[in-house]
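Input sequence (311 aa), recorded before submission:
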Amino acid sequence: MLERHELEAFLTLAEELHFGRTAERLHVSTARISQTIARLERRTGVPLFHRTSRRVELSLVGRQMYEEMRPAWSRITDAFERAVDAGRGLSGLLRVAFNGPAAGQLLVGVTQAFRARHPDCEVQIREARLPEVLPWLRDGEVDLALTCFPTDGEGVVMGPVLVREARMLAVPAGHPFARRATVSVEDLARVTVLRIPEALPEPPRRDRTPDRAPDRTPAGRPIAGRPVVPGPSARTFNEVLTLVGAGEGVFTVGAHARRYFARPDVVYVPFEDAEPVEWGLVWLADGATARVRAFGEAALDLVQAPAAPVP
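Predicted structure, token format:
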């Protein structure tokens, strides 16, 4: 098997046909090139170059060896350069998914900030339903996604929390809870809670459709922790709200739903004692390229920037 330095010495000398220029290109001594070529010739058993005091020429075997090796070596070096560009480069294409209109609006702002920093990198934005986020990441359809937390899974990285919003309960307009100022997490044990697809990992399913009300509030107050009555399953958020409006159950949502999903048949009631809904970027651990990291930095800088003063 040839070593890399042997390949480079042979291919470069075959192109330069001059030991001095070959040494300069490879940043080694002329003696090192001579020794390497002599070692290759001993291993092959035939001369690879014909040398005189005035010129260097490829032998018949050397020319055949060069013509067969050069295309393969070019493919190897090109593949390596593409891998380096994918891992460390800040040009090319970055594909980002978002889940829901609020996330889409935030993602547009992040994309603008990222493009201002890295104009050579194109950003492609796609909307994904919640069950599609992890499959798209694992299938390589997108490089990262802006979605609600938790989005745990094997090999999945959750970046810093970008947005925290109040948790609310979507209830039918005619439901008794619709007339209340707030609800409690304990109230979940008194209603039917709609389900999200079983295909989702357990953490997001438990966050939105728990099997039972918690034993304690976020402040530590003990509560009943009674089982929750499971309702029908829905595949999309609009399907969830349609089922809520039809009186099939209730569902926990983020406060943004009041703005982006206002409906006459659904009322959003704030929780008085629930943890907020958190949003952020997720990506695969082995896909943490320079582009992905730079996009995450742009997102964090954007949400942490002080608000502009009102004129």
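Checked by second reader. The longest strand covers residues 156-165.
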